[in-house]
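Lab notebook, design round three. We kept the backbone fixed and only want residue identities now. Task for the bench partner: fill in a sequence for the structure below.
Input structure tokens:
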């Protein structure tokens, strides 16, 4: 019994030693691999949650709920109403079809941008704090607070711009669709980040060594990754609806002109 326990602890220590070695000596590679896998998990979580919410919404629908067919179709032309009803019925389908392309796009963003970036960014912040001797001048919390402020106000906004831009390119979008994504989701995403991340970052910067900060934040990002994936998908779905409704309106106008 003791021999088995000793072997287990030894193997655990060996695995931790290898992981620590990779985090210290190969930060970019280790964080890229970790970020890739966590984006896969985050997007899968987002897709499953979206499916469950849509399915539950269809089951719990009440006469007073604001469904397009019951409320908005009254003000739409027949062609637009018919097309809109098709869109909403497709959303509420109980069959879950996993979007592998969406997951691959999210995972590639994590592997090639997000992972390498924070692997370099956090050590850089630490060097800046040491350079200006924040801890010696203002106390042990000065450096962590400065890092949180820098991360949320200097790094977060540009990375959100890059994320929505990268996803827009992967989806074959245009400059107009990118602008629409930013108008709809940039401020929402950033405010959510400001509400959630400072406490996590503050504890991370205060109590974890520099080499472990990026992997730990990556691990915490699984829900955040899912959130960003969901918001990007929500804008994409809205764009598809608007496009189909616009096409249906044009077709209806043509039919009306032909009748005249």
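Proposed sequence:
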């Amino acid at each position: 019994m003791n021999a088995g326990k000793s072997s287990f602890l030894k193997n655990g220590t060996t695995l931790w030693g290898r992981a620590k070695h990779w985090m210290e000596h190969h930060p970019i590679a280790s964080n890229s691999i970790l970020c890739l896998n966590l984006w896969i998990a985050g997007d899968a979580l987002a897709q499953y949650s979206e499916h469950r919410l849509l399915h539950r919404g269809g089951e719990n629908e009440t006469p007073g709920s604001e469904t397009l067919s019951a409320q908005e179709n009254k003000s739409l032309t027949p062609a637009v109403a018919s097309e809109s009803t098709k869109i909403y019925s497709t959303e509420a389908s109980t069959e879950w079809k996993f979007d592998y392309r969406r997951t691959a796009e999210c995972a590639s963003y994590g592997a090639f941008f997000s992972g390498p970036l924070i692997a370099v960014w956090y050590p850089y912040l630490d060097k800046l704090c040491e350079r200006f001797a924040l801890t010696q001048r203002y106390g042990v919390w000065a450096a962590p607070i400065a890092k949180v402020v820098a991360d949320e106000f200097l790094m977060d906004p540009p990375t959100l711009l890059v994320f929505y831009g990268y996803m827009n390119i992967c989806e074959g979008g245009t400059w107009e669709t990118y602008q629409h994504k930013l108008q709809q989701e940039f401020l929402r995403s950033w405010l959510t980040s400001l509400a959630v991340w400072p406490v996590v970052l503050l504890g991370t910067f205060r109590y974890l060594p520099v080499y472990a900060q990026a992997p730990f934040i990556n691990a915490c990002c699984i829900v955040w990754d899912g959130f960003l994936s969901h918001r990007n998908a929500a804008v994409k779905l809205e764009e598809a609806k608007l496009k189909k409704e616009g096409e249906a309106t044009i077709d209806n106008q043509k039919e009306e002109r032909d009748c005249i």
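Keep this in mind before ordering anything: Residues 109 and 166 are 7 Å apart (CA to CA).
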